[in-house]
Design goal:
The protein has 331 residues and is α/β, with parallel strands linked by helices. It has 12 helices and 14 strands.
């Protein structure tokens, strides 16, 4: 019998993102990569390593340290038919560009009555867990998900990082692409010949019967660890990777909760006015007669992100999520 061949390989998420950008640059001459230190340095996390050498300074562009100018330039390039992929060096650096993103990038399609599209991807390494200083560990996804006209997604593994970035770049609408920086070095299998599912569809990554755990980005791995720990005590938890926070695939979550009767939503961002609140409200409306317990949320505290020595106390971890699981199952 002939040996089965496969094109899949195991790589860190950072490498998967690099190869995804390389593929996009190869496939479409209108794709540009731009940002602070993305060229000669290859980005602070080396996501763009080697791209400027291979594609030139006209397509992989080192920009000034001016986020508003970077996004504003990307908008102008998109108006001329290009597909810019903008890197914001760290999550907390995006706010000088917030005005450009929410008043121009998000609104142009509606303002032009559908005649103008802005296919811009804004890549944002986000979240904590790397021991960084102030303004380097924010989770601002709810601020962008609230804005009509923006799509917001976050991969949790190498395969999704590769494919979701490809899909974001090919999308005619602006996409805010949140990359969980604490997972950059987690390895996973990537098959560049596979056919990906829809960009905004949630995925059940572990089946269970007693309770549904929903997370996205960095917290999916944590929730899988929670489910494994709960299984040792005889409890069966279903884990759903939301993948997209705008739009949200409520249908997949609803189908799960109608079976399990319980839902716990987990994200790194503060619980107060976080994206989990929208999910909790919608599922409560849709599944009211199926719920055996209130929908619970687990996340960061309503406080500025702390110094590195305290971030383990701030970030939701195994024990905090398990405590919410215990409360939900106690009803």
């Amino acid at each position: 019998m002939a040996a089965t061949t496969t094109t899949a390989k195991t790589v860190p998420m950072a490498k998967a993102l690099n190869e995804s950008l390389r593929t996009a640059l190869e496939n479409d001459p209108k794709v540009l990569v731009m940002g602070e230190d993305v060229g000669k340095l290859g980005g602070v996390f080396r996501i763009t390593d080697g791209l400027q050498k291979d594609f030139g300074e006209d397509r992989v562009i080192d920009t000034p340290l001016a986020e508003s100018g970077i996004v504003g330039t990307a908008i102008g390039l998109a108006l001329r038919g290009y597909r810019p992929v903008v890197e914001i060096q760290f999550d907390g650096f995006v706010f000088p560009a917030y005005d450009q993103i929410v008043t121009q990038l998000a609104k142009m399609h509606a303002r032009a009555l559908g005649k103008i599209r802005l296919p811009v991807v804004v890549r944002i390494p986000y979240g904590g867990g790397i021991g960084a200083v102030e303004h380097h560990s924010e989770s601002p996804e709810a601020l962008f998900a609230h804005v009509a006209g923006l799509k917001c997604v976050s991969p949790s593994n190498a395969s999704d990082a590769y494919w979701m970035l490809q899909q974001a770049i090919s999308c005619d609408d602006p996409v805010i692409f949140f990359e969980p920086k604490r997972r950059y070095w987690d390895k996973g299998e990537v098959d560049p010949t596979a056919i990906p599912g829809p960009l905004h569809r949630a995925v059940t990554v572990r089946s269970g019967d007693d309770l549904t755990l929903v997370a996205y980005g960095p917290m999916v791995k944590t929730c899988l660890q929670v489910a494994a720990a709960a299984a040792e005590e005889g409890r069966s938890l279903e884990v759903i990777d939301l993948r997209s926070v705008s739009p949200i695939d409520f249908d997949t979550v609803q189908a799960s909760v109608e079976r399990t009767g319980r839902l716990v939503v987990v994200h790194e961002a503060p619980v107060f006015f976080g994206s989990g609140a929208e999910l909790a409200a919608r599922i409560t409306e849709r599944c009211f007669y199926h719920l055996e317990a209130p929908v619970l949320r687990v996340g960061g505290f309503h406080a500025p992100y702390p110094p590195a020595r305290l971030e383990d106390e701030y970030l939701p971890g195994l024990d905090r999520v398990l405590e919410a699981v215990d409360r939900a199952l106690a009803y």
